[in-house]
Amino acid sequence: MQLVQRAMPLQMTEHIMCIPLLLAGVLELTNVYFIDTLDGGWVLVDTGVPGSAPRIRQAARQKYGAHRPPQAIILTHAHFDHIGAVRALLATWPVPVFAHVQELPYLTGQAILPPLDPTVGGLMATMAYLFPPSGTDIRPHVLPLPPDGTVPHLLGWQWLHTPGHTPGHIALWQSAERVLLAGDAVTTMNQERPGLAMSAVPEINGPPTYATSDWPAAEASVARLAALQPRTLAAGHGLPLSGPAVSSGLRDLATHFAERAVPEHGRYVGTPARFDATGDVVALPPPPPDPVPLLVSATALVGLGGLGGLGAWLLLRQPRRHQRHGQLRQRRAPYPI
Ligand SMILES: [Zn+2]
Ligand SMILES: [Zn+2]
């Protein structure tokens, strides 16, 4: 059985398809996107978690036929859940992979992205203890995106530097149809309550809290994306959204970013990670005190009873925002596609 399973691909527009990748058929993991090119080919955006290659190949076969590799792969950033299948795909599809120049240290074996921060709280943050480090080496396939903002093979598209979640994070923008592929600059679900993928309430939220290492930059990036006034918003996590409420929802997130997106505490809250012009890490704030690794050791001594207690405590540990009563604000969704 494939670990990463199918959900119905969503034909977002005539030329863009969203492929949601699910764990065990239900739990939303991440999205990848197929974009048709004007010369009859296609481009793959992101590659999902490790183990996603069979599902991506299967979806590509169904849409484009056998033996039709993409003309290129574009990576929004180098987190493990977006580059997970890139090496496996390159083994059969040896095509160029494009990423922002400041993300290249993490795609050429030079460095790994700043550690995730499970101490921000919430279910996904708790799961981050289990996530692998983010970085790979896909030389010689990986190339920097053109500095003029154009996207190889995708006429009418622009890449936009949207740092904060990672130093070389990008979004993709198609102005003719006002379509924004936002990567992890925003999410269109509540990552603290992922639930079952297809029943998840769609809502526009900030980037994943446990994986964002520069909150001021992330806020500036959301403001930049909101100014575009997109009609369709498709992110790395959550179902794509379309309709007039997308633009107002994104603007609301940008206006209230500190309350709605930034965790109340965490390793990178107040002191961002710093990077040099190449994107490499210059300085990281120290990790905050975290009782979990100690508790895990103690649990190993006490036995499985303790493990159950630890699990319950982790699941009940709630994320908090800079907000009056520490409550996450509920927001009804714009219209899902
Ligand atoms: Zn990410
Ligand atoms: Zn992600």
Features:
single chain; 337 residues; alpha+beta; Metallo-beta-lactamase, Chain A; eight-stranded mixed beta sheet; 16 strands; globular; disordered N terminus; disordered C terminus; binds zinc ion
Structure, described:
This protein has 337 residues and is α+β, with helices and mostly antiparallel strands. It has a single domain, classed as Ribonuclease Z/Hydroxyacylglutathione hydrolase-like (Metallo-beta-lactamase, Chain A). Helices cover 24% and strands 20% of the residues. It has nine helices and 16 strands. Strands 1, 2, 3, 4, 5, 6, 7 and 8 form an eight-stranded mixed β-sheet that branches. A six-stranded mixed β-sheet has the order 9-10-11-12-13-14, covered by helices on one side. The longest helix is centred in the middle third of the chain and has 13 residues, at 215-227. The radius of gyration is 19 Å and the shape is globular. The two termini are 29 Å apart. One zinc ion binds at residues 30, 79, 81-82, 184, 208, 236-237.
| Count of strand segments | 16
Structural class: alpha+beta
Query: What is the CATH architecture descriptor?
Result: 4-Layer Sandwich
SSE sequence, one letter per element = EEEEEHEHHEHEEEEEHEEHHEEHH
CATH topology: Metallo-beta-lactamase, Chain A
CATH class descriptor name = Alpha Beta
Q: Can you summarize the main beta sheet?
A: 8 strands, mixed
Task: Determine the mean pLDDT.
Answer: 86
- Give me the number of helical elements: 9
Shape type: globular
So, the CATH homologous superfamily? Ribonuclease Z/Hydroxyacylglutathione hydrolase-like
What is the CA-based Rg, rounded?
19 Å
